[in-house]
Design brief:
alpha/beta, ADH-like_N, 2 domains, EC 1.-.-.-, 15 strands, Quinone Oxidoreductase, Chain A, domain 1, oxidoreductase activity, 9 helices
Length: 303
């Protein structure tokens, strides 16, 4: 599924393209599933044009799970037939995972978690890496209390589970319809909106140790009265948090972190809830669903 120029989901078309070239240090992956993330349609609209080169036709998608089809020169880590998953963000946007085949550096992938099916594995990389790296940056530890915004979303739902695995108590913001889901992840749900600080203090009278903002819309600023140090407020969606003394973070590809996530999954402490699973040809509908901002967990395209 490709775009001929920057635009919306209406520009996505089934497109015949040559098989990707496989550079030294890369593998060719036969895609079984591709995760859908908001950054996919934001990139397609030109939102990252100031910082990232793009080429057309552009195949979107940075999350993938699939089978190694071929290996490039000097690749000893993988063999044909190996099952892998990864966050395959390259230096420029063109050949993504919304395809039958995609090439990726071995630095961007890891063995697929044995406990996850293809759709779960495809939904894990970007969201899981974002959550894990944010928790690390916020220095979340055993016995602490953490506020996770958008706890029912793709990143937030994994963030709740990772924080719990680290031994933290988690309070998670979510709409009321998602409160039971948030509880099932191990968090104590609170509703968004006016009065949030008072609702959180009702559960944690002395505030929280860290705030992880996975939604934006001023959530980080609204949470400042709850945390002792603004340096433990992080956002992946609001760059203005830096001016408040917090951190604006952007996920980085990491094989080591993917291996850590897979270990957590196979240990039974981390799972991926796939809300919508659509065939690749329905990528435009997947973007429409994503734009509504109401997905519980992840949207995945199957190939």
């Amino acid at each position: 599924m490709a775009l001929r120029q920057y635009g919306t989901e209406d520009g996505l078309r089934e497109t015949e393209l040559p098989d990707p070239k496989v550079a030294p240090g890369e593998v060719l992956i036969r895609v079984r599933a591709a995760g859908v993330n908001p950054v996919d349609w934001k990139l397609a609209a030109g939102g990252l044009d100031p910082v990232m080169e793009a080429g057309f036709p552009m195949v979107p998608g940075w999350d993938v799970a699939g089978v190694v089809e071929a290996v490039g020169f000097d690749v000893s880590e993988y063999r044909v037939g190996d099952e892998v998953y990864g966050y395959i963000r390259k230096d420029w946007a063109r050949n993504g995972s919304y395809a039958e085949l995609v090439s990726a550096s071995v630095r961007l992938i890891a063995p697929k978690p044995a406990s996850m099916d293809w759709s779960q594995a495809a939904g894990a990389p970007l969201a899981g890496l974002t959550a894990l790296q944010a928790m690390r940056r916020a220095r979340v530890g055993d016995g602490e209390t953490v506020l996770v915004h958008a706890a029912a979303g793709g990143v937030g739902s994994m963030g709740v589970q990772i924080a719990r695995a680290l031994g933290a108590r988690v309070i998670g913001t979510a709409s009321e319809r998602n409160h039971d889901f948030v509880r099932s992840l191990g968090a104590e749900p609170v509703t968004y909106g006016d009065g949030l600080v008072e609702r959180v203090r009702g559960l944690a009278p002395y505030g929280v140790d860290a705030v992880l903002d996975f939604v934006g819309s001023g959530a980080a600023a609204q949470s400042l009265p709850l945390v002792g140090s603004p340096g433990r407020v992080l956002s992946v969606a609001d760059a203005e948090v830096a001016a408040l003394g917090g951190h604006y973070v952007w996920v980085r590809p990491s094989t080591d972190d993917l291996i850590e996530l897979a270990g957590m999954a196979d240990a039974g402490v981390l799972t991926v809830h796939v809300e919508h699973e659509l065939p690749l040809a329905e990528a435009a509908e997947a973007w429409r669903l994503s734009k509504k901002g109401r997905t519980r967990g992840k949207i995945v395209l199957t190939v």
